[in-house]
Write a structure and sequence with these properties.
3-stranded antiparallel β-sheet, 43% helix, alpha+beta, binds zinc ion, single chain
């Protein structure tokens, strides 16, 4: 049953009968129904957003300094996600690989978030090895021919 349509039809009958007091009350009820429908719509939208955020939170694991999806064995896999965007805004934003750097922590991959523009140095000891399989010898990009 379409409640709003039902009230609208009853309102029309009451209006034609000339009972203005009752008609005004029905108009007020119609406005209340519209308000409730809007709140219901917004709540459904919010629930969907929260369900998506929860599913994402359950899917990603923090392995400093970034978030990763886990494989079937519980090991981080795939490209890293931005820690700043995930924890600050609940958004899973992939980092983009830029290049490698030698640092005092050893060789690191430099990844960048194009949303918040934050850069991440990820030591090669961490689980992600996008460009080199673990068993293959590491070839620096500037050595490749
Ligand atoms: Zn970010």
């Amino acid at each position: 049953m379409d409640l709003l349509k039902e009230v609208r039809e009853i309102s029309e009958v009451v209006r034609q009968s000339g009972n203005e007091g009752l008609y005004e009350r029905l108009v007020s009820i119609r406005a209340e129904i519209l308000d409730i429908q809007e709140k219901l719509f917004n709540n459904k939208k919010l629930i969907k957003e929260l369900e998506e955020a929860l599913a994402l939170k359950q899917k990603l694991t923090f392995v400093e300094p970034a978030y990763y999806e886990m494989d079937k064995e519980g090991k981080p896999t795939g490209k890293p996600y931005c820690q700043t965007c995930f924890e600050g805004k609940g958004k899973a934003i992939h980092l983009v690989y830029r290049d490698n750097h030698d640092t005092d922590q050893g060789e690191c991959e430099y990844w960048m978030c194009y949303t918040c523009e934050k850069g991440f140095m990820i030591p090669l000891g961490t689980p992600i090895r996008k460009y080199v399989p673990p068993e293959a010898p590491r070839i620096k990009p500037w050595q490749a021919t």
